[in-house]
């Protein structure tokens, strides 16, 4: 790569602060922010790649474009580089970089980070290793073929020279082209010395000692605080009048601002301003705002579901994601059929750190200080809102106190930027928990219809799956939408999972955008995206179909996970195809004691999936053991057992944490998390009414990883997708009650018991 490969710290305005614990976060009074981890010498660097540099002390600095929100992504990505580079892990540091066009797409979501980064980071590490061996061999007076690299040194027999000394001497090769990088040989799994090993994530010390910098910590001298006064609807609101008479007596109140937003991101917004957050917060309660609202102010859940059902009933509507011939013929000749509807309520993000953003202009550059998951998405919107080119806007990087998909949509940066532009001052916008909820880009309610046709011996001959919900990608990133077989675009993050790996004969999957949902609120991506609710329908339907045809649910699934046709898999990410999904399902069933005798009102349920996307399958299976109270309908999950095949595991401790968190999120969505959308707004605005999983409800959790040398794939979300259907199927196993709505409420269990 013949170009400058790493930013000069002074030019990029990083402030580096080294900590004795090996992790530090720099932050100046002028809001010069950076997230970095590890010691830094400031010495000139060898830059074999855009993605890292090595200084004269042998310190390796890895540039990370992925957001850190608790998943230790920087550690995992740095580990990939360090392993291939043969670096000394104790001399590896991490920088989470600010926005710059040279980084390309900056996004953290979809369980993509390790999967997408592994190939090019491995190649980058290999390039550095080769260059260092070539230069080190010359210093040692030995042929390069006789030298090896280990733990930050080049060896020729017993003689060695450190990476730092090689860099200090200079003259290293840096001119690797993209083609040369792609052709570099990557180490076989047997020679990995860092990947898969046990080690502490780089960000743990700072997160535990309080020095870690989150967006909400950002400050600058002379800034004023703002809190939003939110309109009654997400869209189509307009401010008519503002009465501030009740706010004028509040100490520190600095007035209010009605936002004029050319991007259309925050219509009808008013900001209360203060010299402290307390003042702005009190002012919001005192300001009286009158709005003119559009028709979506009357929309409620019943309207959204009615629209979804109408779309599903219109067989000409939607995009055909899977469109095998012969579906209708198979249903016409079927010996038996299943036709079932599944629904899910709205689900909120409720990340620990409420939304916030600090914005100001300096030296012709507009700086936005905040945590963000998809910087590349919000930059064009900010440019439109501010009326200036993207190149004059920089998003500064901070840790995220939770993201879960909410911070993929960086809409919260827009009002802060607009206010800073209008006032000519730095503005720190902070949301309360209630503001955060009302402005949430929540997971849309959904309706799905699944039909299955059966031939002789209960063999599935056709499956027809129609799914309707609000489409976040259509609303916020339509350029990410592929086209279906009927040449109509679809939101992959609102249908993935339905295009499963079962062999079901003639298969049809129809994705339908609920246009009323898209207009009434801003649908968002929530951890596990489409598979979080499509798999609820797929795996519940598989269980219903097995029972309807008198077959064992495990044997029924295994019969269809045969790896034939398009389900055979392909390199590099889906080698083995459905056979690997069958393997995790078989293993989890055996581990959970499938087929064994259980106490009264206790059931065992199964579910399996391929995780997020067909080109990045994370083969996952879950067995849930539940106890049902027939009198109250209460469901107690006693144990969740999960088996996952995610290819090579880069950071085992991080992988386990991801699986644990995702599984418990799935449990929370299954039994506890569901919001009501009424009169244009979410009704449950805090954690008193919206009740995620509590610690007392956490079950015994058993997680197993399949040992694998296959390409690493995503782990942040797949576990979420299998827990709810496994619980639903276990409820049926326990008491014969079939539930078809998420979350599973006790009254729904009681109603199902009456019809069982």
Features:
756 residues, alpha+beta, seven-stranded mixed sheet, disordered N terminus
Overview of this structure, please?
The chain is α+β, with helices and mostly antiparallel strands. Helices cover 29% and strands 23% of the residues. The protein is built from 19 helices and 30 strands. The strands form seven sheets. Strands 12-13-10-20-17-18-19 form a seven-stranded mixed beta sheet. Strands 1-2-6-5-4-3 form a six-stranded mixed beta sheet. A hairpin with a 2-residue loop joins β7 and β8 (153-156). The longest helix has 28 residues, at 113-140. It is globular, with a radius of gyration of 27 Å.
Please outline the helices and strands:
Elements (H helix, E strand, L loop, with lengths): L24 E3 L5 E5 L7 E5 L2 E4 L4 E5 L8 H13 L6 E5 L16 H28 L7 E3 L2 E4 L2 E4 H7 L8 H6 L20 H6 L14 E6 L7 E7 L9 E6 L11 E5 L2 H10 L1 E6 L7 H13 L5 E5 L3 H6 L3 E9 L11 E7 L2 E5 L5 H12 L6 E4 L16 H11 L3 E4 L2 H6 L7 E9 L5 E10 L2 H5 L29 E8 L1 H6 L10 H18 L4 H8 L17 H15 L9 E12 L2 E13 L6 E11 L6 H20 L5 E2 L2 E2 L17 E6 L12 H18 L5 E2 L3 H10 L1
Parallel strand pairs: 5-6, 10-20, 16-30, 18-19, 22-23, 26-29
Antiparallel strand pairs: 1-2, 2-6, 3-4, 4-5, 7-8, 8-9, 10-13, 11-14, 12-13, 15-23, 16-21, 17-18, 17-20, 21-22, 24-25, 25-26, 27-28
Helix pairs in contact: 1-2, 9-10, 14-18, 17-18
